[in-house]
Amino acid sequence: MPRTNDDPRALRSRAAALAAATELLVEGGPENVTHANVARRAGIGRATVYRHWPDQQTLLIGALANDIRPLLAFDDSPVRDQLTTQAEQMAHRLNQPNSVSVLATIIQRAERDEDARRIREEIFGQADEGFARALAAAVERGELRPGAQEHATDLIARIIGPLLFQRFLLGVHLEKDWVVSLVDAALAPWLPNA
Which of 166, 157, 168 is nearest to 127 (CA)? Predict the structure, then answer.
């Protein structure tokens, strides 16, 4: 009898293979994520890996998508507090070598692969809309001057851009105080008394 997608054995083998694929990606880059390497690392048969991911591209995309979550998500609390907390969390993630490896692979592959582009959108693409709403709420509460919500993309870029530049291109360990100063500098022109 064939296994269904909710068969506990299939779910366990899939989870083990994804964990192994993610480890291999972090350790050796995309070329390290092969069916044979994943099967060996996960302690499962190569045929099982092929059953879940019929080719290397789908296997790699599975590894890349294994632990994705949006970089920024907003609610109705004070916008500076949200940005500071989330930028600190982002910096913490970026300071982890495995996060840098996975994110760099997604960014690089998204230039020519539709699946990687979708993953990149899940990570980065939803920040603008949610941030614009958070900025509009902050304007209504008097935290920021009117018009700030129209500059959501620019404000996000002024925070995320330096984080990515410092971490990816310069290899700098991101410090909490510096991250907070980025948030404050981005918001400064929009403060009510500015």
Answer: 157
